[in-house]
Predict the structure.
Amino acid sequence: MIELRDVYKTFTRKEVKIEALKGISLKVEKGDIFGVIGYSGAGKSTLIRLVNYLERPSEGQVLVEGHDLGAYSDKELRAAKKNIGMIFQHFNLLESKKVFDNVAIPLVLLKKNKAEIRKRVQELLEFVGLSDKAGSYPSELSGGQKQRVGIARALASNPSILLCDEATSALDPQTTRSILQLLKRINAEYNITVMIITHEMSVIQEICNKVAVMEEGRIIEQGSVLDVFGQPKHETTQNFVKTVIQNSMTTSVRRTLKAEHGSQLYKLNFAGESASEPVLYEIIRSYGVKVNILFANTTEIQETTLGTIIVQLQGDPSQIEAALDYMNKHEVRIEEVKSYVLDINHK
Amino acid sequence: MFSTSITSEQFLKAIIETIQMVGVSLFVGSLLGVPLGILLVITRPGGVLENKGLYTVLNPVINIIRSLPFIILLVAIIPVTRAIVHTSIGTSAAIVPLIIYIAPYIARLVENSLLEVNPGILEAAEAMGATPLQVIWYFLLPEAIGSLILSLTTATIGLIGATAMAGTVGGGGVGDLAIVYGYQRFDKVVMVATVIILIILVQGIQSLGNTLARKIRRY
């Protein structure tokens, strides 16, 4: 478990103070895959470095497994760090050492004996699928393979937490996917809590169960990925969501729309159960409302289907009212799309 | 025209003296310079054992010694030399100033080599909970080893140049031969021969350093 309590971090460079973090509070529960997303400069790198005290907070507390890292002596802190694995964007492997020795380093630091090290390293290399590369140098590996070595190294000391600092940002989409699947396996098989920082929404979508969105040193939105993706409140969050889920009408549909009297546009958001129920059929049949579908899309997040439909409803206001009521009861989240008439008038 | 005033024995003796002076001062100079270089890197702001006091003393002291021309240093520290080797002339008397000359030079070269190590690797080491000594031993030095060998190669060649001036205190060596017989007595044969020997020596050491660095890196 990781907990940040009202954390501030200020850097002073050449007499100029830079506030990197301005009052961050968050809680990562055991077994979570917690994503932190933000544009560069949002402070997410600083944030993840606080969790293993590579950076110390200027104010506030960082608690790992219930212990305040600030209360530890240097020695205790070093011991605590062995419980927190970390992987990096640029892998940070020792170029002078073979894959085997790179993975063995945390064990060497722990002064394990040779037989134990050999057994553990072989086990780890097998887990990440690199048994045949034990004798290679990092420069002979591809980016994805290097990150696998990084992961094996991070797991060597049996940590309960794994920190991923932009771990897939230097990889191509396909390699990214395979690394993410590996992280998911680590989380599931070893029950390791994973904290990921990234600027790619697809990373969050693919493996995280919780997400925090950062901007200018603050968390502007956090919660379960499903909630944040389903109903992004902040503009930055909406922009991130847009990068993986298209949720607005195409321009050509928008252009051909006619602003008719007695018709209104609604964005219907379905999640989970409601996504598999014939809600639209019901409102047509029972309330006699004309439904014109302008946009529809479904996305899977956290093994839950998230559906978005933009409809134009035509009919008697009281019928429309009743239809909306019905959908509300069936857990369809309804947003009125107001701007479309204005849009059209402007064009 | 090809006549010369020195014997081949003299020549051989000079070569041995040069090798002695370079060898001993390189060895002792490294024993002092390598730790000093490491100290410069780890105590600098942001280093693994940041120590502003030590760094701000060490840094200018090394600069001051390095700014003295060797010929001046040689003479200036005669009392120190006498205290250490109980004589102020001869090969062993030349070795003391050579060490004092080369140690800060090696410290700087080592500093540069270590600063080239990817900071990400040190961050990884810190994230693993490595102690400062472990950071140096398991991360910093192995990553810099190739570059360190090249640095020591440069230092060795610098030393060969400095030994030429060791003749001032009767240190002998090939460089001294070149100055005393070749330059001051216009003995062209000695001049050419010493230059050729120095070229071979420098080339050999550089190639050796390059080969060693490449072999040890293997990546």
